[in-house]
Specification:
Helices cover 51% and strands 12% of the residues. The chain has 221 residues and is an alpha/beta fold. Helix 7 crosses helix 9 and helix 8 packs across helix 9. The radius of gyration is 18 Å and the shape is globular.
Length: 221
């Protein structure tokens, strides 16, 4: 995804703020393909507009930005999600990350910080307002360090290809990047990830990354 054009959707229920963010991004040379004032509209627009990054407010009239993030990531070609919120509460940040958001900025961020964050999120980097990055890293470490049940000899086993895909997911690669590296389709990668989640009885990206860390799949060896 990092080599593709940056196509942005802005989701915020305040028209003036939404328009200002869209204008700033467009003036910076990014392609704003859609704007939405609520979560349902954002989810509905994704298939036709194919954004690579969705800039999403946390407080929307019909659903939370966390739920919007989950639904966007369930779409056929999911965009990466950057939460742009007035809230810097730790619980809000962790919920957004657990839902799959790649970045989280508070609305007090400067215009230049927002533009840079969108570019970095598009490239697959995790971006957080200063002071929040340590919180998120600490949560991942806590999850990775938490004791897991003893291994069950009857536990489902992953195929070599599922393990290979999981290793690349753990390294932070997007579905398109994994597809290109393995010379398979984007849909095939999605199917491998979903099969892995089902086999391991996991529910989201955080749990998948935790499993990969436990198994040493995030190592470069």
């Amino acid at each position: 995804m990092s080599g593709d054009p940056i196509r942005v959707m802005v989701v915020d229920d305040h028209p003036m703020w939404r328009d200002a963010v869209a204008r700033d991004l467009a003036e910076a040379g990014l392609e704003v393909v859609a704007t939405a004032g609520d979560g349902a509209t954002a989810v509905r627009l994704v298939p036709a507009t194919r954004p690579t990054v969705a800039v999403v407010d946390l407080q929307l009239p019909d659903m939370s930005g966390v739920e919007v993030t989950r639904q966007l990531l369930d779409s056929g070609e999911p965009p990466r999600v950057l939460i742009l919120s007035a809230s810097g509460e730790h619980a809000d940040v962790l919920e957004a990350v657990k839902a799959g958001a790649t970045g989280y900025l508070v609305k007090s961020a400067r215009r230049e910080e927002l533009i840079a964050a969108v570019r970095r999120v598009h490239a697959g980097e995790a971006v957080f307002t200063p002071g929040l990055a340590g919180l998120v890293l600490g949560e991942y470490r806590r999850l990775a360090a938490a004791p897991r049940p003893a291994a069950d000899s009857d536990a489902p086993r992953l195929t070599p290809r599922e393990t290979e895909v999981l290793r690349l997911v753990a390294k932070g690669l997007g579905y398109k990047q994994i597809a290109a590296r393995l010379s398979v389709s984007h849909r095939t990668v999605q199917n491998h990830v979903q099969n892995t989640l089902n086999k391991l009885q996991l529910h989201n990206r955080v749990e998948l990354v935790r499993y990969a860390i436990d198994q040493g799949l995030d190592d470069d060896t």
